[in-house]
Structure prediction request, 332 residues.
Amino acid sequence: METDTLDRPVEITPAAMEERIVRYGELVPCRTAFIDAHTPGSDKKENFTIIGGGVSESADQHVHIQLPHGFNIGAAGQPPLCRNSLHSHRTAEVFFVLSGRWRFFWGRWGTAGEVVLEEGDIFNIPTGIFRGFENIGDDYGMIMAILGGDDAGGGVIWAPQVIEDARDHGLVLGDNGKLYDTKKGEALPDGVGPMPLLTDSELAAFPEPGAEDVIPRHVARYWDLVALAGGTPARVIGAEAKLRDRPGFEVDLVTRASSGEEMQAHARPSVLMPLRGYWRVGWPGGSVVLNPGDTMSVPENLPHSAVPSMTGEAALYRVVGTDDPAGATWTG
Prediction:
């Protein structure tokens, strides 16, 4: 993780910093973010866009922080047995489990492979494969997402059956990437056609890797990362990290054992996302406490520190953009 020691610290007031914090309890959900919002089994999910525009297809999506970071931060909240339908992205999609128990599955029909993730586990899903996920826990669960690039690759690529199922339940996706709800009397505008289904030849280009190929290279378990974060933060995603990838950002796991009062700064905006415990983030001129599920955008070149503010288990994920292109992560 690139850091810089600066002779002239950036100044920011506590009030200005608070505007860069999205509290978990203040997240604004969108229940019509994607084409499967009316499809039974997927119609109770909530989508959150925290930093950047994300890939929502709905004009109703609320964006909490518009500032570009080189990546997007979002979240998905779902009750038990609710699933997110099969889709693909052109840039990285990284999830970590904030709460609940989740099954991720992939492939044209979702049968090529699967993995179950527990709280704190992280999955750097390869680009270019269809993927979906469902909450298999007993309570409402939340997963946090990091999407590569400021524009997140221009949207979502849906498996053909998802578009067909959605049409049967009143939602039509235009070739402009926008959703139209026929149940509300909406129709495709003049000059906008329906999103074309992928052809057989296009579908053949989507890989079907098995679990034995994906899990070792793309999944990191929380307790393994905690063990690695004994003195310094665990490098989770990066060129020399646990998951060796360069998707346009780097991810570290910081624990109590690897935190410290010494301030550091990054040449790009960084994002702090507490998973366990309460964290006090300090900078010249102020400090603030973050709770699990909060998201904080730290300005570039601002010296800051993050340390647990109470006893007990404490861990947070830190994300910083890089100069690497937000390109493919599946190499076969």
Summary: The radius of gyration is 20 Å.
